[in-house]
Design a protein that fits this description.
Number of strands: 22
Shape: elongated
CATH superfamily of the largest domain: Immunoglobulins
Largest sheet: 7 strands, mixed
Order of helices and strands: EHEEEEEEHEEEEEEEEEEEEHEEEH
Distance between the termini: 114 Å
Structural class: mainly beta
CATH architecture of the largest domain: Sandwich
Radius of gyration: 32 Å
């Protein structure tokens, strides 16, 4: 038996949906494809249903071309997707044959698009693309997701198109169906790593300055979509009484079933904070190398130097609607070691100078003593 997924591919232009795909903000937005001049609204359709139910829905597609004489015909089709495991961007699932499609859980196989071919010839003309979702009686509970993709490539069939010609410029609307039944909601934190302004990790988590970004990889082991919350606590190591430093998941990202997502929050509340200078084409090579960063000072803020504990606490509601908690702790050291090395170097130079001065002075005094002794002997 072949693997369930024969190929996983990303549709590049659909990545513009990624910032919306799992967020509450997405529900009120529209998407435009600059190449096509098509606008789809809304970006996301969410439904609830029971096994055996029939759901009807639609997306509105509006023509918005600069070239008003262009003939436009689109061919909508459905495709399952999962998450890329990092950013929450959609990773579209390509089945090599119908046997790989699990009818009890594949939303793609439940969707019937009523119009296989849609012509939009007038400027600013809109067409409603309607579809029907037939939830099978043996459907498993939890969240199912698929996209309805709009393409001008007539051959872009979900099974027959192996080269995916032209699919890179498609746009899509996303469909989520929450199926009633046995649900499981369980999150765990698989990793927490800290990065600097450039997104780089540091050896032993030793950073010179803030900002420090806390990147938390949260895994959804259940079968339902989850929008976690929580707090990040950053305090001197060993301190017992701590207060929240950062809110977790401020962008309200949601995590698809059986997938992971990295949620990042940045800590920059300190007396001195590094920022990037604005560089442009007129910036000299010297400035681009030596003046790339700027060390700013936030008066009224505390110094952040020492050893800290970074405690990430993720809160979510399980299938029983009970609050559940996942937590993970990592160490953080903030120490401006380059400045410290510079100061140490200056101190060493001063010590060496004093030693040399004392030695020279002692030699002079020794020579004077010898001269005096010789003069006494002569007398």
């Amino acid at each position: 038996m072949k693997n369930k997924f024969s190929r996983l591919m990303v549709i590049p232009t659909v990545l513009i949906l990624a910032m919306f795909i799992l967020t509450n903000i997405a529900r009120a937005q529209t998407s435009a494809s600059p190449k096509y001049g098509l606008i789809i609204s809304p970006l996301i359709q969410e439904y609830k249903g029971k096994p055996g139910d029939t759901i009807k829905g639609s997306f509105r597609v509006t023509r918005d071309f600069q070239d008003t004489t262009r003939s436009v015909t689109i061919y909508p089709y459905a495709k399952d997707f999962t998450s890329d495991g990092t950013t929450g961007n959609p990773l579209w699932i390509e089945y090599s044959n119908p046997d790989e499609v699990k009818v009890d859980s594949s939303l793609e196989s439940w969707i019937t698009i009523n119009d296989k071919e849609v012509s939009i010839q007038k400027e600013a003309e809109s067409k409603d693309i309607t579809f029907t979702i037939n939830i099978p009686k043996n459907a498993t509970g939890g969240t199912k997701q698929a996209g309805i993709i709009f393409t001008e490539n007539k051959s872009a069939d979900k099974l027959s198109d192996t080269t995916q010609v032209g699919i890179s410029s498609d746009i899509a609307g996303l469909v989520f169906v929450d199926v009633e039944g046995q649900r499981s909601i369980n999150l765990d934190i698989s990793d927490v790593n800290l990065t600097d302004l450039e997104g780089n990790t540091q050896l032993f988590n030793i950073f010179e300055y803030l900002p420090v970004t806390v990147n938390t990889t949260v895994k959804n082991n259940g079968n339902s979509i989850v929008e976690p919350g929580g707090d990040i606590f950053i305090s001197p190591s060993g301190k017992t009484e701590i207060t929240p430093t950062l809110a977790f998941n401020q962008k309200a990202g949601r995590i698809l079933p059986k997938s992971s997502r990295v949620i990042s929050e940045t800590w920059d509340n300190a007396f001195w904070v590094v920022s990037k200078n604005q560089l442009n084409s007129e910036t000299s090579l010297v400035d681009s190398i030596f003046n790339k960063y700027n060390l700013g000072f936030n008066f009224g803020k505390n110094f952040k130097i020492g050893v800290f504990d970074v405690v990430v606490k993720v809160i979510y509601f399980n299938e029983k609607s009970e609050a559940a908690l996942a937590t993970k702790t990592v160490p953080l050291i903030i120490f401006p070691w380059k400045i410290a090395l510079g100061i140490l170097f200056v101190i060493i130079l001063i010590v060496i100078k004093n030693i040399i001065v004392k030695k020279v002075k002692k030699n002079r005094e020794t020579k004077k003593t010898i001269v005096k002794e010789k003069e006494v002997i002569k007398e």
